[in-house]
TrEMBL record:
Every Methyltransferase domain range: 45-145
InterPro entries: Methyltransf_25 (IPR041698), SAM-dependent_MTases_sf (IPR029063)
Protein name from the UniProt record: S-adenosylmethionine-diacylgycerolhomoserine-N-methyltransferase
Organism superkingdom: Bacteria
One Pfam family here: Methyltransf_25
Organism: Methylobacterium goesingense
Residue runs in coiled coils: none
PANTHER family: METHYLTRANSFERASE
Listed transmembrane segments: none
Length: 213
């Protein structure tokens, strides 16, 4: 097991049971990003850093013709995700696998190498080599595919005391907002021969970025 996997398992061994109930108050923009995925009929979706499976369940319900897949480096989170998928009755449509977001082989994990939509929701802010994750994800897009990223933003429109309090609190959970996410998205999109779109939401509290191939 990698150091990253061990760290995530330690962090979420207990937190995972309360994760969805607590995070819904501050992981803003996730549902709007899901609503804007516009998965093509019969399309394949991959969530990188799928955590408890909360987003995958919502995606599967929103796009009933989509084949959904999720990877996470934490076996503890995957255990919780499997339970969420089972309770939702979506086991035939959602496949889960353990994988490192910086380097994974979806062909080996799922028998599929490309995806019409890839989602990364509030995971880059927890992964130190986060730019590698962006490049890795973009490399698994099918022609015409889109990578959707929602995560903490640079907070430019928020009052300084609010930013200071928020960042101090996030640091307690090993979360670091990626202030240069828009620039990184543009670089990855250019390298992949695609185009980038970045929208700041809630006065910069979060960013919804899209790389379209």
């Amino acid at each position: 097991m990698s150091d990253a996997a061990q760290a995530m398992d330690r962090m979420y061994r207990r937190q995972r049971h309360l994760y969805d109930a607590s995070r819904k108050f501050y992981l803003l923009g996730r549902d709007r990003a899901i609503a804007e995925l516009a998965v093509p009929p019969g399309g394949a979706v991959l969530e990188i850093g799928c955590g408890t499976g909360r987003n995958l369940v919502r995606i599967a319900r929103t796009y009933p013709e989509a084949a959904c897949h999720g990877i996470d480096v934490s076996s503890a989170m995957l255990e919780t995700a499997a339970g969420s998928v089972s309770r939702a009755g979506l086991e035939p449509r959602i496949r889960l696998a353990r994988g490192d977001a910086t380097n994974f082989d979806p062909e080996a994990l799922f028998g599929r190498g490309r995806f019409d939509r890839i989602v990364i929701s509030y995971a880059l802010s927890m992964i130190p080599p986060w730019e590698r994750v962006l490049a890795e994800a973009a490399g698994h897009l099918a022609p015409g595919g889109e990578l959707h990223v929602v995560d903490f933003g640079g907070q430019a429109g928020l009052p300084w005391p609010v930013c200071a309090l928020l960042n101090r609190w996030l640091a307690a959970f090993s979360v670091t907002p990626r202030a240069t996410l828009p620039q990184a998205v543009a670089r990855v999109a250019s390298a992949a021969g695609g185009r980038a779109q970045v929208r700041q939401r809630f006065r910069g509290y979060c960013v919804h970025a899209v790389i379209a191939r």
